[in-house]
Amino acid sequence: MNLQGIVAVSGKPGLWRALAQNKTGYVLESLDAQKTKLVANLSTAKLAALTEITIFGIEDDIRLTDVFEQMKAAANVPDAKADGKKMRAFFYEVAPDHDEEKVYASDMKKILTWFHILKDLPAFNEADPTQAPAPEAAPAEVEEPVAEVVATEPEPAPAPKAKAKKATKKAE
């Protein structure tokens, strides 16, 4: 999935696509049907790129993009307005190592809302250009025969030339 340039803005609902950058911040466009434009000032607004967001895990943090991949593969993704127990059960399917005490119902609602916004975008189904291709997709390397190298004695380096000193005559 290619989520480059998609951000969440604190205090603003939904997701935004970064269109351009100016001296004071970013020009953003909402991903909803209205396509609202917004200039987010870097000194007042907090932007979070979706590719950088993680979820609290028991051992290690879980990347949001990994959770979205699991959600794409899931058969039945609940609505963001679903019961808290149903959302928690779903999160145990897609992110079994999430920390139950630190991941709140509001976090799960936000992630589900974001997933429902993103799932219809063409970029959501594209490959991420920053990720390396899967090992199965990599072409098999062909081993070429190595040419035999014959060792020879290196030629001696030429001796450095002595610098000629210029004689200067002082004017009397």
UniProtKB/TrEMBL annotation:
Comp. bias (Basic residues): 162-172
Domain DUF5606: 3-50
Region of interest (Disordered), residue spans: 126-172
Residue intervals of the DUF6852 domain: 53-118
Alphabetized InterPro entries for the sequence: BVU_3817-like_C_sf, BVU_3817_N_sf, DUF5606, DUF6852
Protein name from the UniProt record: Uncharacterized protein
Lineage of the species this protein comes from: Bacteria, Pseudomonadati, Bacteroidota, Sphingobacteriia, Sphingobacteriales
